Amino acid sequence: MADALLVPVIYGSVRTERQGIRAARFVVERLKLRGHEPVLIDPLEKRLPMLDKMYKEFAAGTAPPVMAELAELYRRADGFVIVSGEYNQGIPPALKNLLDHYLEEYFWRPAGIVTYSGGRYSGVRAGVQLRTVLGELGMVTIPSQCPYPTVGTTFAEDGSTKEEWIVRQTDEFITEFEWYAHALKAQRAAAGVPY
Question: Is 181 among the domain residues?
Fold first, then answer.
């Protein structure tokens, strides 16, 4: 598909009984249905070390393989979707650690913010914090957020849902994300941004 976008979906929890992975799986599937190429980035699988050096601070060829793999993916990405729970009115430490290993790889790309919680408030305070963090990393956050309440019952383990309003909300969110991703991709190309 000519308009297909490569979209890392960065998920941020490493808790043993995490429920938010269901929301991340749902977003991945909705992106696939639109013809895009989402890649779920799970900190339990990627296992980045606690931040000591950013990827760019390693001499060429000396970064841990997992860091190099993510850097290569991020340089090709058309945009990012960040899926975050809310921990004490902020973002999970695993998500912050995952994000902070990179910088230039994010520049001039859109970020869509998806938040969730086990209750009714849907993690929206983490979304507010994420706008600041993602902007500092060089991403452009799209205006809409995509909050999910009661994540443990709203989604099945495989990420499916029977809630039609969740499907509608997510598709509207993705439509907005697509607009920003295509616009910024065109602008990067016009400006000769190397990646």
Answer: yes
